[in-house]
Amino acid sequence: MAAGDELQLLGAWFSPYVIRVKIALGLKGLSYEYIEQDLFNKSDLLLRSNPVHKTVPVLIHGGRPVCESLTILQYIDEVWVGTGSPPLITGDAYDRATALFWAAYVDDKFFNSWKAIAWTTRGEQRAEAFKNAVPVVETLEQAFRECSQGKAFFGGDAVGLVDVALGSFLMGIKTIDEVNGTNLLDETKFPGLAGWAKRFLAVDAVKEAMPDAGKLLEEYKTSMAKWVASKSPGFSWTR
Question: Is residue 201 part of a domain?
Answer without folding.
Answer: yes
